[in-house]
Amino acid sequence: MGGSFSCSGVRDAYGSYLEEGDYVECTTTGGAKQSLGRVKYIHEDRVTFQWPVFGTYTYTDSDIRYYGVSKVMGDRDGYKFKMDQIVELLDGTEAWVSLYSPQSVTLNFGQMGVYDAGGGSGVGGTRSYSQRDVEAYGLRIASAGFRGSRRQCTTCA
């Protein structure tokens, strides 16, 4: 019967569905605090993650809960998005993170902190991006002081 939605049925420790390509992090003391991992493969009852430091490991549902594996949103280079970060697209357009969830990141292309009376978008509007959209648009965290940013402060003479 037309257009049914299906998903893997595999969830993180907090209930978010996992898909291949999603970023994850360990949130419990049972898990090593490290950079973000990535969902490499989803099997019927297991998930294979690629970790930058430890390599590739396959987890069961109980492993996912033990380590507190949580789905997060990451930029094209694998850094976790956070509220109020400055982000740039491949074309150089800049925006700031105004909303964040494990499923999407919302960018505001207007002035930081400026909203309309209805709680909507700022001067330039907003747009939400899934992890696949982040990859397609090449979103990259560009906040000043964040890992080799091209942004610079100016000084008055």
Query: What is the number of helical segments per DSSP (H or I, 4+ residues)?
Result: 2
Distance between the termini: 69 Å
**Largest sheet report:** 5 strands, antiparallel
Q: Helix/strand/pairing class, anyone? A: mainly beta
Overall outline: elongated
Beta content:
25-35%
Helix-strand layout with pairing:
Layout: E1 23-26, E2 37-42, E3 46-51, E4 55-60, H1 61-67, E5 69-72, E6 86-88, E7 94-100, E8 105-108, E9 126-129, H2 131-137, E10 140-141
Antiparallel strand pairs: 1-2, 1-5, 2-3, 3-4, 6-7, 6-10, 7-8, 8-9
Identify the notable features of this structure and list them briefly.
single chain, 157 residues, mainly beta, 5-stranded antiparallel β-sheet, 2 helices, disordered C terminus
Question: What does this protein structure show overall?
Answer:
It is a single chain. The protein is mainly beta and 157 residues long. A five-stranded antiparallel β-sheet has the order 4-3-2-1-5, with helices on one face. The protein has a five-stranded antiparallel β-sheet with strand order 9-8-7-6-10. The chain is elongated and about 45 Å long. Mean pLDDT is 80; it is low at 1-6, 114-122 and 147-157. The protein is 9% helix and 29% strand. The N and C termini lie far apart (69 Å).
